């Protein structure tokens, strides 16, 4: 076993979690309670998944329900990270737009069998990538619109449609959401050996097979994240996803600014 699950394992995890919370507090990065809560939730959720995953992979209805649960949690998490108002549910669009076509193509081509033992981890990786891209792209786009609202107004004064004026300001900022995935893909094997590669090796696969699986994951993630960022940017530009209170309305003011 790579990591023995015993008292030492639990103690080391507790120390690492305490270090993360302490550093975040001392550097005024995030509330330490948020760090601790995330760690405790991760432990509880992984324990629960470990108990039910054996049932899920043997039943198609349970498999579909589990995948929908993963998607729903991702939508809620991403949407609430982007905005606190009622438009958060629009995060469902970029996550689905990125994940569904890729998973569908993998199933149709037979590269991933329609079995839980393969479909759950692959879909989970892709949903996680879409979640990250949606959060980063949406937050960066809305932050940029809030900071540079004068440039949006200038574009409107020049006759640009509202969508185009927002796109001109938010596009470059939203594109930064693709950088983590691009950098990971560019440096794979040179800086890090990602989890899929290491897991395949530990499971007895050959280095060639492990490398092929990891390449597949990285390229799939780039496709998913690219679609997710493009979709969330379009939603922000059209005013569907915003930070205003109340119902969306068309105006010559900025949709993405706080407190409008």
From TrEMBL:
The chain crosses the membrane at residues 42-75, 87-111, 117-138, 188-206, 212-237. It comes from Streptomyces gobitricini. It is a multi-pass membrane protein. This is ABC transporter permease. It is found in: Membrane. The keyword Transmembrane helix applies. The keyword Transmembrane applies. Belongs to the UPF0014 family. Keywords: Membrane, Transmembrane, Transmembrane helix. Its main location: membrane.
